[in-house]
Amino acid sequence: MSMLDSWVDEVGLIGGNGSAVNRFAWTPELLAACEWLVERLRELGLNAEIDAAGNVIGRWDVDGADAGTAVLIGSHLDTVPDGGRFDGALGVLSGLEAIRRLKAEGFGPCRPLWIAAFNDEEGARFGTSMFGSTAFVGDDLTALRDRVGVDGVPLAEAMRQRGFDFDEVPRAKGIDGVGCYLELHIEQGPRMEAQSLDTAVVTAIVGIGGYRVTLRGQTNHAGTTPMGERRDALTGASRVVLALRDAALASGDVTANVGRIEVRPGGTNVIPGEAVFFVDIRTANPNIFPTLGNLVRDTVRTAATAEGLTAEIAVTYEHQPVPMDSELQELLGREMEAQGLAWASLSSGAGHDAQVLAPHVPTGMLFVPSQAGISHAPEEFTPPGQREPGVSVLTSVLKTLLLS
Ligand code: GLV
Ligand code: MN
Ligand code: MN
Ligand code: MN
């Protein structure tokens, strides 16, 4: 078994049971995975630490005043609820393997090589998403101070429980030392397998809007309240789910999802007086993206009016659609060609830390396939033989970048 494959198995057991993995921001499970990575990086001779935002940052620095800015590689180690072993982790571990190979062959970089495992890319606990990379690029996160986790623990308190301080998060800014960013990731969709591709160059990353919607009606008796006189919050939520699904289907360029819903008070013989649900809506089209907020708001208002409900809408996350750097796309494509791989250029329907980095430094991504196109699920899998081409391309491209 290769080093990469044994690392995938080992990390998959941290917060995992061999298939489903649960590693959320500021939990012992995620921090254990981060500490595992710090140890591996130190064994390879890098300076490694967990920064003030919970990112693992490893630095292979080079001597000399003219060393220049770093090539940064990375991804994330946190997961969605009952997530897979590959989303994020394969990118981090492929980066670790690339560094191991460069060290093993005595490669001497002309500029620094850094690696990051960004904290809380998924936002599973606090609904924040891309917390760590946002801190790394120096963007303001103070608005998140009062966010409360799905477990009822406020973000600042969750950090304090692990020895971190929310006020120190700005110290995690590290972008000024970075010259470019590269992220390897699983595709998380079916296109590569359908086309029998080994690897893909990412052209652009989808824009993502996240909204928390609260609908309120009247809690009442399930059996005595006439059907025509109900103010049922879940019926309103159902209208929103279907209307957004239909709008997305009609557009062809949009995806819409409601993956989390809480209905109160939650009795089988009680009309739900309140429904809180989370909309995730996406498009790669930069002309459509600015219209999605109004689509959500109009859809919610229409449903609320139809069911006699009140509505509140809050933005929980927003990530702009971004193109990947054209020179890095060319470099990746040339290397895939040189290695004789079956490859193509594809856009990403998943969000990535790369879209947070892209407005700041030239950023590129490459994909390896996802078996049966399944992701954000325990069945997520990329067979060992399909991991290697990605690592090989990443390692070669790093050599080119580190010598320039
Ligand atoms: C990240 O995994 C996302 O696309 O939600
Ligand atoms: Mn994910
Ligand atoms: Mn991911
Ligand atoms: Mn910025």
UniProtKB/TrEMBL annotation:
<dbReference type="InterPro" id="IPR001261">
    <property type="entry name" value="ArgE/DapE_CS"/>
</dbReference>
<dbReference type="GO" id="GO:0016787">
    <property type="term" value="F:hydrolase activity"/>
</dbReference>
<dbReference type="InterPro" id="IPR036264">
    <property type="entry name" value="Bact_exopeptidase_dim_dom"/>
</dbReference>
<comment type="subunit">
    <text>Homodimer.</text>
</comment>
<dbReference type="InterPro" id="IPR010158">
    <property type="entry name" value="Amidase_Cbmase"/>
</dbReference>
<dbReference type="Pfam" id="PF07687">
    <property type="entry name" value="M20_dimer"/>
</dbReference>
<keyword id="KW-0378">Hydrolase</keyword>
<protein>
    <submittedName>
        <fullName>Zn-dependent hydrolase</fullName>
    </submittedName>
</protein>
<dbReference type="Pfam" id="PF01546">
    <property type="entry name" value="Peptidase_M20"/>
</dbReference>
<feature type="domain" description="Peptidase M20 dimerisation">
    <location>
        <begin position="205"/>
        <end position="301"/>
    </location>
</feature>
<keyword id="KW-0479">Metal-binding</keyword>
<keyword id="KW-0464">Manganese</keyword>
<comment type="similarity">
    <text>Belongs to the peptidase M20 family.</text>
</comment>
<dbReference type="InterPro" id="IPR011650">
    <property type="entry name" value="Peptidase_M20_dimer"/>
</dbReference>
<dbReference type="InterPro" id="IPR002933">
    <property type="entry name" value="Peptidase_M20"/>
</dbReference>
